Inverse folding.
C-alpha cells in the first residue's frame, strides 16, 4: 500500500511541482492550500507523513503543528520554513516537528528527507521494551513512564527507542545521527541536542533523570539520577 502524504502549502506553483514529483515516486499526495483546509485534513484523516509550510492563510503551520501534537498524533511532520535563524528552527522542533527544511530547497533534498522519515525500524510485534519504569511498545508506538503516557513525536519515539535498545551504552552524536536520522553528523547541527532536551523534559515530568550526558562522549540511558541531580 502506498504511503499517504498530506502537503499543506499555499504557493500553488511550488505545491504542484512537489506534489507531482512525490506522486511520480509512488506516494499518494493530498494538497491543502491554506491552514483551514490543512487543519481539517489533519483532524479527519490518517496520514503516514505531513509536509507543513509555516506561512499559510488562516491558521499558520506552527499553530497547526502544535494542535496536531496536542491531540496526541505522532505522525512524522516535515516542517518547511523560510525562517533560517537557529532560534526559529528550534521553535519548530519544540512544537513537534520531526525535521525541517528551509526554503528555497532542492526537490532532491526534500525527497531524501521524506524517504528518511517514512523509513521505520523493524517493529518488534508484541514485544515491549522496558528500562526501570519506562515502557515502549514499537508495534504501536506507545511510550509510558511510571504508568503515564508520553506524548512523543515520531522522531522522539525513534530516538528514545534507540536509547532503550542500547541502555547502559554511551552513544556518540555521530552514531545517533547515523542510526536515528540516517545521515552523517556534520559537527554543527544542534538537532540532536534539541530532541534530547525535549525527550528529557517529557521523561522527567514522571520521575528522575534517566537520559544522561556523558561529557565529550555523547549520551546514555542509565540509572535514575539521585534526587536533585541531573547530568
Amino acid at each position: 500500500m502506498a504511503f499517504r502524504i498530506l502537503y499543506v502549502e499555499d504557493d500553488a506553483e511550488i505545491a504542484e511541482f512537489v506534489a507531482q514529483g512525490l506522486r511520480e515516486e509512488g506516494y499518494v499526495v493530498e494538497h491543502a492550500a491554506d491552514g483551514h483546509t490543512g487543519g481539517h485534513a489533519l483532524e479527519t484523516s490518517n496520514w503516514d507523513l505531513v509536509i507543513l509550510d509555516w506561512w499559510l492563510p488562516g491558521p499558520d503551520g506552527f499553530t497547526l503543528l502544535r494542535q496536531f501534537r496536542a491531540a496526541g498524533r505522532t505522525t512524522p511532520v516535515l516542517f518547511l520554513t523560510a525562517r533560517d535563524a537557529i532560534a526559529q528552527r528550534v521553535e519548530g522542533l519544540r512544537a513537534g516537528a520531526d525535521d525541517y527544511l528551509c526554503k528555497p530547497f532542492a526537490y532532491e533534498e526534500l525527497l531524501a528527507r521524506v524517504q528518511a522519515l517514512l523509513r521505520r525500524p523493524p517493529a518488534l510485534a508484541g514485544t515491549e521494551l522496558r528500562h526501570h519504569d519506562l515502557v515502549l511498545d514499537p508495534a504501536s508506538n506507545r511510550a509510558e513512564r511510571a504508568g503515564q503516557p508520553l506524548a512523543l513525536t515520531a522522531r522522539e519515539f525513534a530516538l528514545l527507542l534507540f536509547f532503550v535498545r542500547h541502555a547502559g551504552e554511551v552513544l556518540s552524536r555521530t552514531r545517533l545521527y547515523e542510526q536515528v536520522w540516517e545521515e552523517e553528523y556534520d559537527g554543527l547541527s544542534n538537532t540532536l541536542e534539541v530532541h534530547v532536551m525535549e525527550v528529557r523534559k517529557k521523561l522527567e515530568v514522571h520521575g528522575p533523570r534517566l537520559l544522561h550526558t556523558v561529557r565529550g562522549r555523547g549520551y546514555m540511558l542509565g540509572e535514575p539520577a539521585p534526587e536533585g541531580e541531573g547530568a
Summary: Residues 121-126 have pLDDT under 50 and may be disordered. The chain has two domains: 4-118, 129-221. Residues 133 and 146 are 5 Å apart (CA to CA). The longest strand covers residues 4-8.
